[in-house]
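Blackboard transcription, Thursday session:
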Amino acid sequence: MTLRKLPHALYYLLELLMLLSWFILISTFSYSFKLQTATLFVVLFFYCALGIFHHKMHHTAKAKIVLEYILVSLVILASFLFVNIGKI
Amino acid sequence: MFAFLKHLLIPHESNNHRAKILHNSSIFVILVLVLFSSLFVYFLKNTRPDILGISYSISETELLALINNMRQENGLAPLVLNDKLSDAARRKAADMFQKNYWSHFSPDGATSPWGFIRAAGYNYMYAGENLAKGFTDAGSIVNAWMNSSTHRENILSSRFKEVGFAISPGSLQNEETVLVVEMFGASPQSIASVPRIATAQESIQAESLALPTSTPQMPTSTPQKTQIANNPKIDTGITSRAASTVGLSILAFSFLADLMIVERKKIPRIVGHNLDHVILILMFLLFLILKSGGVIV
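(Written on the board underneath:)
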């Protein structure tokens, strides 16, 4: 009930904090492509989880929305691999 | 054409009030395109490195000149290129490739910069080491070193009188890269011969003396390379980064435009939160823009 009352802004703030943490981690792990990939994988998982949770709290979680979050995350992951193709 | 772009990027009746590019089917197509491009680049890079690869051009002469310029600006005598220090640097680069590590000290603790300098026959009173990898030109390397306090300290140390470089392309930790090892030193002889700050004219003389005119005397398994360059027709790094930046910018713009138009028209629909996706894409774009080509330790 309390969670449902949380404003949208708080979710976006949480997401922003999570992505900023990722940004710091990925810069710290600039020496290791494997660690960078693992960090991105974890953050994209939590990105999807947070997004779906956000929709669930507002009763708008549908299969196509879950799929949308997964697809956007996969596009980001694929782009990361594409720009680092020299390291694969 | 305009109608097609409108259908693709702007929400209206024809695309059920959701820009076509943002439909799950379209995002799936984008994903397949990125994966297909990655595979294409991967195979072309490995089969035709003359067409697709990493372009770089780094020379020992340029590194020395840039470093001596920095020293001169700070009222220090120029460093003189020393063959033994260059040999030590090549040994270090070969060791990093062989043992697959990226550090001043090998993971097994068996080797240190000082060990390579001694093994090359250089009798040092003071010694130092700067490392760089993944850079494509000498200017970027020296800039990165000058922006790091410890590396800058080495470059601008009045204790060091001589320097040696190794510029070695190879595969390190599953990544095709170029290693640059810079070894600083001061032997009792060099300290005795360079007792004061050189004038500008003397600096130029020192640089011209530093040009590699003969092969090194130290026997080493790695051949001496004072300049390396690779100029494929298409640079993998630049191309993939540019394509990703453009593609993701279009996607972010579409999500943002979709959000603004639908919010203004108050059209009810059940889709993901566009702002979530915009924040994610913008953060990734920031990473792409700030992603530096090289690393120093």
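Lecturer's comment: Residues 195-221 of chain B have pLDDT under 50 and may be disordered.
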